[in-house]
Amino acid sequence: MPESSRLIVVTADITTLDVDAIVNAANSSLLGGGGVDGAIHRAAGPQLLAECRTLDGCETGDAKITGGYRLRARHVIHTVGPVWHGGDSGEPELLASCYRRSLELARRHGLKCIAFPSISTGVYGYPKAAAAKIAVRTVSDFLKSGDRPQSVTFCCFDHRAAELHRREIAVLGSAMGESQ
Ligand code: AR6
Asked: Could you tell me the distance, in angstroms and rounded to a whole number, from the CA of residue 154 to the centre of ligand 1?
């Protein structure tokens, strides 16, 4: 199966998704915040924060896994995206690392379906088109190395972000078609 057919784009609130894991765009304390982080903690309930307190935080570009508690998702994978400082401070590598480390955790736990928000593109200010390109390419590259996870959902909060991800997937799909 070509990797691009394992990629799904939806416009939704990520807390509503019925998947094995949703990814949280957290901060290094892992103790909650605004944006998607706040929404996930509100929907999961206080037990999520209690488990996060035991994790001793998380480095930028790394990821840690917890239960999903009151969410429909069975797990939450917390990752810490880079703050955008103009692009010359390692932001692209750190953003790619967030996707890779999250996928490694999902694979290690045998998870079949996982959903990402658009990491770093809110409060952390990463330009949305550049972030979508890194997200799609990094996930697609990772999926080539194994059959878990089977599918990866890019859960966008608005139609414009969804369109950016669909466009990147189309670019990848046509590049693969040309090389066959
Ligand atoms: N479902 C899906 N996507 C969402 C949702 C949701 N419920 N809510 C927001 N988004 P942000 P960051 C989108 O700011 O930039 C927090 O305070 C949003 O439109 O949540 O990585 C953390 O604690 C945007 O495209 O995360 C950190 O301190 C994307 O999610 C900091 O913000 C990410 O926006 C992390 O900043």
From this structure: 13
Percent of the chain with pLDDT over 90: 92
Strands, E assignment, 31-126: 63-67, 75-80, 113-116
Q: Is the CB of 140 under 6 A from ligand 1?
A: no
Catalytic residue among 13, 37, 88, 141: 37
pTM equals 0.97
- Can 62 be counted among the known catalytic residues? no
9 lines ligand 1 (CB under 6 A): no
User: Mind listing the domains of the chain with CATH numbers?
Assistant: 3-21+59-64+81-179 (3.40.220.10)
Q: Kind of pairing, strands 75-80 and 63-67?
A: antiparallel
